[in-house]
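Good morning C.,

I know you're traveling, so I'll keep this short. The sequence:
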Amino acid sequence: MPARAATALATALLCVSGAVAPADRLVYATNPRGNTLSAYNPTTGNVVATIPTGNLPFGAAVSPDGNRVYVVNYGDASISVIDTNTNAATGTIPVAGARPEQVVFSPDGTRAYVGHFVSPGVGGIDVIDTAAGVVVATVQVGAQPTGLAVSADGSRVYSANFIAGSVSVIDTATNTVVATISDPAARTPSSVAVAPDGTRVYAANFNGNNVSVIDTATNAITALIPVTGGPGSVSVTPDGAHLYVANQNANTVAVVDTATNAVTATVPVGTTPIVVLVDPTGTRAYVTNGRANSLSVIDTATNTVTTTAALGNTPYVVTTAPVAPTVTAVSPTNGPASGGGTVTITGRHLAGTGAVTFGTTPATDVRVVSDHTVTATVPPGTGTVDVTATTPAGTSPTTPAGRFTYTRDTTGLTATPVLLSLTPGGLNVTLSLSATLTDTTTGQPAPGQTITFSVGGTTACSATTNAQGTATCQGAVPVLLALLHLQYTATFAGTPALAPATATAPLIRLT
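The tokens, ready to paste straight into the viewer:
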């Protein structure tokens, strides 16, 4: 297999967040010399389907909703679209450039990015509208883009340019290159992966025998991690704690501690490991062994190969269905019933989050910060509710750690003094009473709330506040009671959203 085969698309192909139950998720591997895609069942350890593709299938990626696999046909300059429910091809998408090799989806699944070696120039990225199935833009990058990765918020695409010796950073809003990152020691980058927290990008440098650590804030290389044997592929664990690096010439996978940038384990695998992909559950890593025609399955707890499965001819890229997001924390955990504050949701597989829900009420201004973090504006609500995040792969399960408690808004009640006009010989007096209720948390009137008016504990009348928060009513009370107390009380009993309040005002006797 040529050196180009060392290019790794593993993490570039991470659209891993899935709507498919973990026990049912299949692992897909392209077989370039067999013109097929193998579907491997990790539960049974068997290939359950061999799917015909186009000529020389190299790259592959599962869509964020888990329903499709895009297979890049290097020889046909096309993409085969595979239905994961039937494991059958449903169509073909032509690409604009020649010799396409890899593909990655945007986190929301609306775009796919395909790297090709020729046209325009010597390296470009085609942007595909996945709904229409057509190329809508092409971005010129460095020579021979052989690895792609997308940031969790979908705003950046990173392209490892093998011959150019650089990593291009693409702004997806404008489809333009906004930075080009290189270092003389970082030779022939072939694969890129974005850390789950979004702060770093890792690039496997095949001839540099190292892995670049790129700061995404500055687009600068901050460290080079030495590895041996032609690192062609890199993949990050879901917690961001470890990198798995496939060393093609050494027939090994190196495990790197991302806190120390040190290799902590070396796992022997089959001949010519091309691509490594950490499963989105983090429990396994899959490695395609190009010359062994096999798939190695690594247990990430022990860093040992537990299964070796036969694949097709010269397996290349491996990808798998996504998993649903999880919510592990909400901060702050409480807020006013009126809503309006910003909450930070922490969890896993949050890339592509399109909706956050508090109970049954959707939040607004949902923003993906990283694969681990999302922010949103809290909607109005009451009580304690479950906070869930929804991606194309599904909705996070409810957990005690993902709950938010609404606190009642404080209120203020103002009663209006009343002139007490008595009729000689009358036993009762009719009072015209008025009070205004304000939500002091928001500073706004509180309409639609019931105010009860009483004198000496005897109810005179009750009324509902209008749009200005004012309630008025007339009620009769005994003259002796009015003269004894010479004041009345307005009472708001409170609601699940508003705290109770009381106010008193004088009954002013006219003489």
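Safe travels,
E.
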